[in-house]
Amino acid sequence: MIQPAKSEGRALSANVVKVDAMPPMARALIALGADSDAAHAKIQGELEAMSEELRLAVLKCDPKQLIGFHWGQLLMGQMVPVDKQAEDAADAKAEARAALDDVMFSLEYVHAVLSSHKADEYGNSADSDVVHAVLSLATKLRQHAMMYCLFAARRMPDGLFGPETSTVAMQAMTSWVTIRGHRYQALEAEFFEFVFEPHDDALRAAYGVGAKEVAAGIQAAVDATRFGHMRAAEKALAEMHAAYDFAEREGLELKEAIAQFYKQGEERRRATESAFDDLFFGGICNVTKSSGLPPDLLADLAFVPGEETEFFAEGQLRGTPLRRMPGRVKPLIALGEAYYTCDANFLRDSAYRALQWGLQKRLPDYRQEWLNRQTALTEGSFVRIFSKQLAGAEVFTSVYYPDPDTGKWVENDVLILLNDVLLQLEVKAGVMPMHSPDLYFDRHVRTIQELVVKAHHQCERFLRYSASAEEVPLYRLIDGNYVEVHRLRLGSYRVVLPIGLTVEAFTPFSSMSKRLPQMQAILGKYPFVSMSIDDLFVLTRFLPTTGELMHYLSVRQGVAGVSEAMVFDEIDHLGSYISKNRSDQFYAEQLAEGATWLLDADACAPIDEYFADPEWATKPPPAQKFPVTLQAFLVANDARRGPRFLDADAAVRDLNSDARDQMALQVDKLRPTLERYPYRYFSLIGDEPLMVWLQRADFVDFEEVHKATAEAVAVAAQAKRCKVLMVYVKPDGEFDGGWTCTVWAPAETDSRYGQRLMEAAPMTAGAVELFPGAAKHLQGRRR
């Protein structure tokens, strides 16, 4: 019997921050009287004054020069020293990330100023001190805005969420200020082609291009900002070397050689000018040049200078980050004859809705058709994107059932039944919150309620109906009649996943919403998970098998049930899963040690590093590590897909790295002996014992034997029950799948208890217990 190490990541991760009830900065502010009206007015006035100073600084600058300066800072920020010791390098990387956040914030503010002022108000300065002042002021404004959020939330009266209102408000406000940048821009085309596919004919009617062309154009614009500096530098260097070679060959001064060099071809001159424009004047942000998309379409994605009127309108928090930034409405700005993006991340965040509004403006009769087509797309999206992982699943869309409270017919969007896992989806196509959580907290929360709380309510209603009887009927509406199509036994499913699915990335609001009183675990045991279609494209790439996806979703559900753990977005959840495995258990352990709540910052690092690699598309994504033996079993188990194969898969995935190594070692030791014996077993003792039963696949199950043995293991471990992982092995030594069951320890009053106690004695000595099997079993019936 083997005692594996405790759960993965026992020590607190460097990225996980334990937080007490009130952040230190907020306590300091309160100590200085920040709860008072006067203190609130003071800090708000300072925030507005900083915003005004930044607005005027932006208006002094030449817009293209200013955009180019910021992107130069981003390029320099990627150059993290690599010759330092590991600890210093980590600090340097953290500093670079903080500087990156400041630049991204400043770019969004530049977009806001340019969108809110007419072109004749723009300046033309390219002075280094002037452009540096913009970034410096933006950095200070961002820091001050975060401080304002912390204590403004403290002043929020108990309301919609009772005593949790101030906590929810704090998370909403700080997220509102910080949510920007850091998307995986390599997947833009994949996302936009998917969501615009139903509207291909409408796009062609309005703009003359279809979904594929639109998606490719947006990807090209994004790629220009990702690779533009590198491509431009390569072009400029190549031309410089060519000019030197020409001068030397012709015996000319360099200046004269360059003049003659470019007289030889106008196209070459323009290409070189374009390279220098990309390097120094924001040319990589010129979407007209990079995307090839038609002007009418780009116009619908762009503000005309001065068109935005709300951001700097008179009133509370004028021009501050606590108002809605224009980049969250339209991602581009018209500068001269071209359209620019200050930050290509805006394209992912805003282009979908901006094109929806543009289509409906150009095709007034298309509004309802858009909604109809988008509903069909969203309700089928989960199954389409995860088609490989969900192979063989029963899928029911638009099934009806009687409301358990009113008896009226109600609908469930998507029900997926696969082996012993039930996934229930409610799909919402609404837009993410567009109202400042400080100025319009009620509106902000109503949007969250519509997208998250309402989906939670609908999932809860379905599961309460499903639990109302041992078996319940489900119906479809056919020709006006409700026709039974399936009988559901909720108790047959080991994992039940209620999921709310939105079109756009809805983070970090989905993580924040689990603090709401209405978001309790459904039926007391099924935490609700909120996800977006946007995120599914990343998940399917990193979790390519059925077992991986289902295990991740069950862990993700576990984290959703830890309301005090704040994980920023779905990609942080994925990164945490890859690095910690059972991250739900990890967070629960940390909270048990006394933290009020946890913030897991930059858990997405493994995903970031993967997509940052220029060769990412040709390399496997990061994944949890398994010994070769266990990986072979997981592959065979997925291929065999026997009863409860997903539970067998999860039994292996639940193990930490030490336990996986120990399990593989014992399997490798015992598997060859199956040539002489029909079965072998060993047990791993953790929080709950796991007995691994290796058996020849050509024999029938030794049910009574493994049940009795599992009871002895449970007694030895002083546990209430023991999980059995059955692993079938073919005569040639290859795996043939597996299954699981749970065996309960006999009570001390049970007649079997004494016998099991005797059998448990050698197990408690710490040995790996092997049952060779009697000779009579060799004559057992073949499977």
Question: Which characteristics define this entry?
Answer:
27 helices; 783 residues; disordered N terminus; single chain; 50% helix; alpha/beta; disordered C terminus; five-stranded mixed β-sheet
Please give the count of helices.
Answer: 27
Q: Mean pLDDT score, rounded?
A: 84
> What low-confidence regions span 5 or more consecutive residues with pLDDT below 50?
2-14, 20-26, 28-34, 765-783
Question: What is the gyration radius calculated from CA atoms?
Answer: 30 Å
The helix-and-strand class reads: alpha/beta
The major sheet is characterized as:
5 strands, mixed
The helix content is 40-55%
Oligomer state equals: single chain
Walk across the major sheet and give the strand order. 5-6-7-10-11
Question: What would your notes on this structure say?
Answer:
- This protein is α/β, with parallel strands linked by helices and 783 residues long.
- 50% of the residues lie in helices and 14% in strands.
- The protein contains 27 helices and 17 strands.
- The strands form five sheets. It has a five-stranded mixed β-sheet with strand order 5-6-7-10-11, sandwiched between helices. The protein has a four-stranded mixed β-sheet with strand order 14-15-16-17. Strands 1-13-12 form a three-stranded mixed β-sheet.
- Strand 6 and strand 7 form a beta hairpin.
- Helix 19 (546-560) packs parallel to helix 21.
- Mean pLDDT is 84; it is low at 2-14, 20-26, 28-34 and 765-783.
